[in-house]
Amino acid sequence: MSVREEVLKIFENGRGEFYSGEELASRLNVSRTAVWKAVRQLESEGYEFDAVSGRGYSLRMTNDVLSQSGIEKYLGKNADQFDISVYKTVTSTNTVLKEMAASGAAEGRVIVAAGQTAGKGRMSRRFVSPSGTGLYLSILLRPAINADEALFITTAAAVAVARTVEEVSGKSAGIKWVNDVFMDGRKICGILTEASFDMESGRLEYAICGIGVNVTEPEGGFPEEIRDIAGAVFDEPPTGDVKNRIAAGIIEKFMEYYKCLPAHAFFEEYKNRSVTVGERITVLGRGEARKATAIAIDQSCRLVVRYEDGSEEALNSGEVSIRKS
Q: Whose CB among 56, 90, 197, 280 lies 3.0–4.6 Å from 20's, allowing a Cys bridge?
C-alpha cells in the first residue's frame, strides 16, 4: 500500500479528527515530507482537509469522494471478503472486470468508478455515466448455478440497491421489472448482469453484476434522450460521505442475498417493491411491441403479462415500458 493510500485510510477511519504530520510520519514509518506530499496529492484529487497550526490535518466530514478505504470502512469486518479497486474514470466497470474474470480473478473482485466513458446498459444501449455525480460498480461472481437462474442475480441486486438508497436518503424506492430502481417516479439505478457460460454443463463460469446509481443530477441536467425518465437519489448534493456509504451498502446487502441465492430470500421484497405489476405496459422484443397488462411476478422472478387478446406469458428476458396513458 502506498503512502497516499495509508494516509487516506487513517483519515477515512478518523474523519473529523486531527493528525499532525509528525504523528502520521511516525505511524507509517515515513518522512514528514512524504506525508505532506500524500496530503497534497489527495487535495488534488478532490479531498478537502482542515489544517490547524499545532494540530495538523483533518479530513472534512462533508467530503464525498469514492475511495477503497472509504468503502471498506463501512464494510467493517466484511471488508476482507472483497478485493476492491476504485478508479476516477474507466471505460466500463463491467468491461474492466470481464477482462479480469477471463484472467482468473477470484469471486469478490469489485471495481468501482466515479465515472464511465463507455457505460453499458441492457439491449446494447449506452448507459449515461457522468463523472462526479454517480457511482458505478461491478462485482465478480462465480456461482454454481445454471444459466436459467442468472435472473436471480439481477433481482437480488435490485433489492440490495433499493434498500441501500432508502437508508441513506430516507425516501422510498421501487423496482421496475427487471433491473431498474425508481424513486419519485424516476429511474435512479440500472443493473446489467453479464455472464460466461460453459456450453457443455449449461452452468455459469462467471457472472458480473454491474450497477450504476445516479447520486445527484449532473450539472446542466441529464442528456435529452433520458431527461424524461432519469432521476437521482438526492435532489441537491448531500452533506457527508454518501457515495462510499452507498457503495458499501449495495455490496454488503447484495452479497448477503447472493450467499443464499437458491433460497430466494429477497423474492418477497422484490415482488412487494414492484412498480410494474398492475400497470399497462408495452412488451418490447422479438421485433415487435405488444400492449399488455403486468399481472404478477412469479416465483422465478418472471413477469407474468396478459396481452390484449387475453393470452398470457411469463417473461424471463426482454424489456417492458410502462404506458402513461
A: 56
